[in-house]
Structures are given as structure tokens and as C-alpha cells.
Write a structure and sequence with these properties.
The chain is α/β, with parallel strands linked by helices and about 300 residues long. It has 13 helices and six strands.
Length: about 300
């Protein structure tokens, strides 16, 4: 099964230009012996896996429970990430940093409950992979309009927007970007910064990070240039199309409403080409976890 997943990833890279990195995750509601056994299977394919993570139900399963497993993974040269502060308290975020030495925190919403932790996350530029639509589906927040992403950004936290098991919780990366833009009133610059953050937080070589962030900046400049040109032409601007809402025709980085700036074109160009590998990362990490569990049973 793993080989099939790997061939699909390679096919996506060759045919579609979509890069991906695999991060199998231990289920924190299972025992640590199972996690260690899973790690042993992971190490057999060390050349194809960049990190290990911790996910599943937080309550009653603190990060420290898996410190020995994560110590072993780091000793083998692997990076580590962990779900923390989604349903669990802010202390779980701190423990993930201190006990698991997580390079990145998945979710991290409840870090907002601890001012000292916020200061640390900002100071150390710890990436938080926020998953808005998943948070709504799992009732982490009541609705998208009350999602804390805007507040997290205002406090200077290093946040990214991500999908999270979209086949189960709904919302691929495009839908997540669109949802927070509309519900939280994010500006074009906000969206561009979120896209940059996604590359800055990714486990990529610095040169590749810079190259991808330049693509975001170039896209932003191109869209704004086209917008400035078309804005003088009534047929291509909002005033010429009464009744068209921003959600009908818009560009994520420039508020253009003409036919050439369809929602599908804009979102596919910005997000589909720049953060698509994050979609693959989340989806295939989930599949790999299931694969490894089957191998153990």
C-alpha cells in the first residue's frame, strides 16, 4: 500500500508539478508501544519520510506521553510536529514544544488563552497550521465567523491556512482560503502573507522557500497590475455588473470582478499552484497512518 501511495506522489510530481512530503502520525489515544512499533516501520522507509507527528484526540492524552517515541525519531534525524491546542489546553502547545521539540504545531488555537505562550510563539516564530473549516466541522469553533485566525494574525503569530482530512471534514485548501476571506474580511495582503507563511513553514530548503515566496509576490504584483488597468474599463469592473457579489467574481489578491478574474481561475492560480503540496501532505499523511496501522495488525 505504501508503494502505491508513493507512486501516486511521484506521478503527481512528474505530471502536475505538485511536490509533497510525508509525515506519518502516531495516534495519541493509542498506547506508546504501538507508536514505537509504528516508528520502527517508518524508519524502514526513512528516505521517503521527512517527519513524524502526533494527532487524534487530545483530551487525556498529553504530548509528554510520547516523549520517548519522539526522542527516538529525532535521534534518527527526523523532524517532529504535533497536534496541540485544538481541543486541548494551551499547556499542550507548550509541552509539544518542550517535551516533543515539535518544529511546527498543528492547529494551536488555544494558545490564545496564554499570553506568555503567545509571546514565546511570536518570538520563536513557531508555525501554527490552522485548519478553519475542520475547526467548524469538529465544533472547535461555533462557526467560521468566530474563528480566531484573524486574532492570531493580529497578535503576530506565524499562522498558515490548511485543509484537514477534507474527505471527512470538508473543505480543500481553496475552500479554506475563500471561507476565511469572506467570513473574517481578510485583505489581499493578508491572503498573500498567509500564502508566504505556508512556504516559510514548510520543510523545504531555504532556496526553494524563497523561490516559492517570490512566485506569490510575482502573482500579487501581476494581479494588481491587471486590476489597475481593467479598473478604468467599466465593462470589467463592479459598477458595470450590478448584483454581482464579491463571492461571484473576485481575485484573492486583488478585488477584480471582470470575466478574466473568475473565482476558479484566481484561486486555482494562487492556492492550487502555491500551496497544493500542503493538501497532499495532509491527505497522504492520513493515508499513510492508516496504512501503517494495517501493517501492524
Amino acid at each position: 500500500m505504501f508503494e502505491g501511495i508513493w507512486r501516486a506522489l511521484e506521478d503527481g510530481r512528474e505530471r502536475l508539478g505538485i511536490g509533497s512530503r510525508l509525515i506519518p502520525c502516531f495516534l495519541r489515544d493509542r498506547d506508546t508501544d504501538e507508536a514505537m512499533a509504528t516508528l520502527e516501520h517508518v524508519l524502514r522507509r526513512r528516505d521517503r519520510i521527512i517527519a513524524v507527528g502526533l494527532d487524534s484526540a487530545e483530551k487525556g492524552n498529553p504530548p509528554g506521553k510520547f516523549s520517548e517515541v519522539f526522542d527516538r525519531a529525532r535521534a534518527e534525524g527526523m523532524l517532529t510536529v504535533a497536534h496541540a491546542g485544538e481541543e486541548g489546553p494551551a499547556d499542550y502547545v507548550r509541552d509539544a514544544l518542550d517535551l516533543l521539540h515539535a518544529a511546527r504545531i498543528d492547529h494551536g488555537n488555544n494558545a490564545l488563552d496564554d499570553p506568555a505562550l503567545i509571546e514565546r510563539l511570536v518570538r520563536e516564530r513557531v508555525p501554527l497550521t490552522v485548519c478553519p473549516l475542520s475547526n467548524v466541522r469538529l465544533r472547535v469553533v461555533n462557526d467560521i465567523h468566530h474563528h480566531p485566525l484573524r486574532k492570531m494574525m493580529d497578535k503576530g503569530l506565524f499562522v498558515t491556512v490548511n485543509s484537514d482530512d477534507p474527505a471527512y471534514f470538508g473543505g480543500y485548501i481553496n475552500e479554506n482560503y475563500m471561507a476565511v476571506q469572506q467570513a473574517l474580511g481578510l485583505s489581499d495582503d493578508d491572503l498573500a502573507q498567509l500564502a508566504r507563511n505556508s512556504f516559510d513553514a514548510a520543510f523545504l530548503a531555504e532556496e526553494e522557500k524563497r523561490a516559492q515566496m517570490r512566485r506569490v509576490d510575482d502573482y500579487r504584483g501581476l494581479r494588481c497590475s491587471r486590476y489597475a488597468k481593467s479598473a478604468t474599463e467599466p465593462s470589467n469592473f463592479l459598477n458595470a455588473a450590478p448584483g454581482i457579489k464579491r463571492t461571484d467574481r473576485w481575485s484573492p489578491l486583488c478585488p477584480c470582478f471582470g470575466d478574466e478574474f473568475s473565482k476558479e481561475e484566481s484561486m486555482s492560480t494562487l492556492v492550487g499552484q502555491t500551496v497544493a503540496f500542503l493538501v497532499s501532505l495532509a491527505a497522504f499523511a492520513f493515508l499513510l497512518d492508516g496504512c501503517l496501522r494495517l501493517m501492524l495488525e
